[in-house]
Write a structure and sequence with these properties.
132 residues; mainly beta; Immunoglobulin-like; six-stranded mixed beta sheet; four-stranded antiparallel beta sheet; 1 helix; 38% strand; 5-hydroxyisourate hydrolase; hydrolase activity; Hydroxyisourate_hydrolase; Transthyretin/HIU_hydrolase_sf; purine metabolism
């Protein structure tokens, strides 16, 4: 049984369209204490070469809900450009925009628990899950 009075959060992003970690994606963390409480922005980070955010801020005591905001559009635009440049026979009218420019994931937490929430990303979809 854990004696911590706060939950903790970590995340990483895998780009499933290329089978690699997504580097350089800005991630912002917000928290609230109760369903009706206002969100408190805690700060953010960016994913490293391994697609991980290793320095997200700690959650305040009493946190019950967490929101991770991923700014994926700049990453997806750059990724599409790199892929098009690498493919000489790529179609001239490639869609280089992000269908989902931002991904916001909100989840409930309990004190003393760790929540690892990976984002699996591609230009036209995403999925998340509670990892370990």
């Amino acid at each position: 049984m854990s004696t911590s009075t706060t939950a903790s959060v970590s995340t990483h992003i895998l780009d499933t369209s290329v089978g690699r970690p997504a580097e350089g994606v800005a991630v912002h963390l917000s928290a609230r204490a109760g369903r009706e409480a206002a969100w408190q922005e805690l700060g953010g980070s960016a994913t490293d070469a391994d697609g991980r955010c290793k320095d997200l801020p700690a959650l305040p005591e009493g946190t019950t809900h967490v929101r991770l905001d991923f700014a994926v559009e700049p990453y997806l635009e750059e990724s599409a450009k790199k892929q098009a440049d690498a493919q000489q026979d790529a179609p001239a009218n490639r869609d280089s925009g992000a269908f989902f420019p931002e991904v916001a994931i909100t989840f409930a937490v309990e004190a003393g628990e760790h929540y690892h929430v990976p984002l699996l990303l591609n230009p036209f979809g995403y999925s998340v899950y509670r990892g370990s």
